[in-house]
Amino acid sequence: MSQPPPQGAIAEFTEVDGLIAAVRAARAAGWSRLDAHAPHPVPEAAEALGARAAPVAWIAVAAGIFGAATAYGTEWYLSVHDYPLNVGGRPMDAWPVFLPAAYIVGVLWAAAAALLGMLRLNRLPRLHHPVFQARGFHRASQDRYFLHLSAEDPLFEPEAALEFLRGLAPLRVSVVRAA
C-alpha cells in the first residue's frame, strides 16, 4: 500500500520567538501558503503571516440593518395596508409602535449573520485537517509552536521544504500526510 501524497511540512518550536523568526524567514523566502499554530495569540506571527481583520462586523451591521428594515416594513405594511386596525384613534402608521420589534429582529439578524459569517470566513466546521496527524501536534494547544508549509504553495517540494524547515532550528520537522 502506497503512502498518501504529502499535504505539507511542519516544524515544531519550543519558544514563541523561534516561531516568529520562522514565519518571517518563510515569508522572506517566498512562501505564501503557510500557517502558524500556537497555544495563545501571537500578534507578531499574525502580522508576519499577513493576517488582517475579518469583515464579520460589517456583515453583522448589514444584516442587522436589513433585518430591522424588513421587520419595520412588514409591520408597517400589515398595519397600514393589509390589516388596518384603529386602536384608540392612533394613526395607522404610528412609527414608534413598530420600533421595538424592528430593533429586536435587527439584533437577531445581526447575531445570526455574525455567527454564520465567522464560520464561513474561517471555513468551519472542519472536523479534520491533515496537520492534526503530525507527530506532537496535540501540544499546539499546550506549550508548543508549529509552522506549517502547505503543499498547495507553488514552492512546495517535499525534500526542499523539509530542508528549509531544518535550517530554522526547530525541535522537530516532519511531513504532513492525509490520514
Automatic annotation (TrEMBL):
The chain crosses the membrane at residues 56-74, 94-119. It comes from the Bacteria. Pfam families: ActD. Keywords: Membrane, Transmembrane, Transmembrane helix. The keyword Membrane applies. This is DUF3341 domain-containing protein. It comes from Paeniroseomonas aquatica.
